[in-house]
Design a protein that fits this description.
- The active site is at 205.
- ATP binds at residues 75, 205, 209-216, 247.
- Keywords: ATP-binding, Nucleotide-binding.
- It contains 16 helices and five strands.
- It has helices at residues 30-52, 56-74, 81-88, 96-114, 122-133, 139-142, 169-183, 190-204, 211-225, 237-242, 244-255, 259-296, 300-315, 321-328, 332-344, 364-371; strands spanning 3-7, 13-17, 318-320, 349-350, 360-362.
- Helices cover 62% and strands 5% of the residues.
- Strand 1 (3-7) and strand 2 (13-17) form a beta hairpin.
- Helix 2 (56-74) crosses helix 4, helix 2 (56-74) runs parallel beside helix 13 and helix 8 (190-204) packs antiparallel against helix 9.
- The longest helix is centred in the last third of the chain and has 38 residues, at 259-296.
- It has 372 residues and is mainly alpha-helical.
- The strands form two sheets. Strands 3-5-4 form a three-stranded antiparallel sheet.
- It starts with a strand and ends with a helix.
- The chain folds into two domains: 29-279, Fic-like fold (Orthogonal Bundle), CATH 1.10.3290; 297-371, Arc Repressor Mutant, subunit A (Orthogonal Bundle), CATH 1.10.10.10.
Length: 372
Amino acid sequence: MLGKRIKQSEGYFSFIPEPFPPKELTEFSSEIITKAALAERLIGKLDGITHILPNADFFLNMYVIKDATNSAQIEGTRATMMDALEMKAGINVNDTDADDILFYIKALHYGIARLKEFPFSLRFIKELHKELMIKARSTHFADPGEFRNSQNWIGGTTLQNAMYVPPPVNEMKKALADFEKYIHNDNVMPVLQAGILHAQFETIHPFLDGNGRTGRLIITLFLYERAILEKPVLFLSSFFKKNQQLYYDKLNAYHNNRPEEWLHFFLDGVIQTAKQSIETSSKITILREEDMRKLQALGKREATSGVEFLQLLFRDPIVTNSIAANSMEFSRAGAAKLIERFIELDILTPLDENDKYGKVYIYRKYLDIFNN
């Protein structure tokens, strides 16, 4: 028993957790164990493939942007991956929705760096939330980096008609203490533990806002901290976005004392996402080899600068003449010539053929791999 809904003096029903973890989350069915073992094998295969990718950190940048976009969209952000890339490149600086995506990216990179010197803990999660929310949309409601001191709810317009009411503050504090102890439990397969931590975090809902995005960051960063991933390349937000209603339904099943339903869904997501990421990595390798051959057929000097420029496009696939000039330390005329050569080689295409000034160019074949 994970907990039960108890009527509060104000008239609404709030979820009150039992001591955590309950027996159901210490003894698992053979089906769950088998599925978790497959998930961890596929994570290992994905992690191995990223090590043979040239400039893996450049490709990781795109995985992060895709995950950030899907995670923000789950919370109602309308911006797309392209909007975020344009804002990141300084091309579209007015889209506040895209800004949400960039804050998620900033928080993830902060988390990766912080875990090199600091343990995964409640304090770490609070720091992560602060990076995610400070100066971001809804910050004035979120109290960045601080657990809530008032009751929140999910769905509905009031506590009385809410779809789910998390624990009151005093019960939340007890649940968070149990949660932190569970983080350091070494008797559970890490992939199962990551799924349980996410669901329990969403059940506690300890922040006024940003719980969903923080909770999804926790999954990848926990697996990274446990060294299941040497590079944080497993991102589940696209799976959750694709199955958004089912995602909510299975989280509801979890705090309705049916945790195996959530774990099956979560592990299916890990397996599907790992397989797709392995396929994506393979497609990236093929595309890179094709475009490298085109560049190596040029004269030595042009090929050298072309290869360097191609590497930059794998990190940031949207470019302008001024971005190319600054990145390559070329004159504007030299950058224009380089871009023109990439258009001739069918590597870059104009984002909008009708633009006469300040044209934007896109590495479309590369972006399509992630969009598909």
